[in-house]
Amino acid sequence: SGSAGLGIFTVCGSRLGQYFSSRDAISGIVWSPDSSLVAAIVKPHPNGSGTSELVVFDVATGQLTTVATGYDFSGPSFSPTAPYSLTYAVAPTAEGGPNVWSAAIGQTSTQLTQASINYKPLWGPQGILYQHDSSSSSELELLSNGHSTRLMNLSSWPVALSSDGLHLVAENVACGAVFASSVNLATRKVVHQ
Question: How far apart are CA 133 and CA 155, in angstroms?
Fold first, then answer.
């Protein structure tokens, strides 16, 4: 089995650091808004249990912090302002469905959603957008001030949110192809598909 690494480079191509050269899978890589932190989902090598870790790197110090360990991670997404928190979805056990969690860097995580399947969280100015799946539908919901509000039926996964929180890019996979759509959250309509 091969190994993978995560390298951080300047825009001119100079290497700032190399992390995880002995790990076998790295995904979900995101920068904090000020580029001081990088979060990633890492599956340690060799780890036959299927668990992954959500880790945060401090670019200036090289410090690595494990935020959570579990199954079926999605996200992560940083809060819009410092001091940064991270939201993510994870199933704590192999049998459970994922739910949305949040943690300040270096602090204990807090579960934000309950039951069903909740994943792909994105932190925006109005709160945390996430995908909620039940047996009958797939919906986009907004978590703000501890309450979830259904915004619209959306069978696509949230991918990116505009800085003003009004436009969402979502993706859907059908027949082996990936389709992108733009969603206007003010009107709650799919603009392009």
Answer: 9
Amino acid identity of residue 77, one-letter, is S
Whole-structure pTM over 0.70, yes or no? yes
CA 119 to chain centre: 8
Judge contact between 39 and 76, C-beta under 8 A.
yes
Q: Which two tokens stand for residue 139?
A: 């919906």
Q: CA–CA separation, 109 vs 23, rounded Å? A: 24
Structure tokens at 1: 């089995």
Q: What is the pLDDT along the chain (193 residues), one digit of tens a residue?
A: 455 666 777 778 777 766 665 555 778 889 999 999 999 988 765 555 678 889 998 888 888 889 998 888 888 999 998 899 999 998 877 777 899 999 998 899 999 998 778 888 999 998 999 999 887 788 888 999 989 998 888 777 888 888 888 899 888 777 777 788 888 888 888 876 6
Handedness of CA 131, 42, 86, 159 (dihedral sign): negative
Give the HSE-up count for residue 135: Cα atoms under 13 Å, Cβ half-sphere. 1
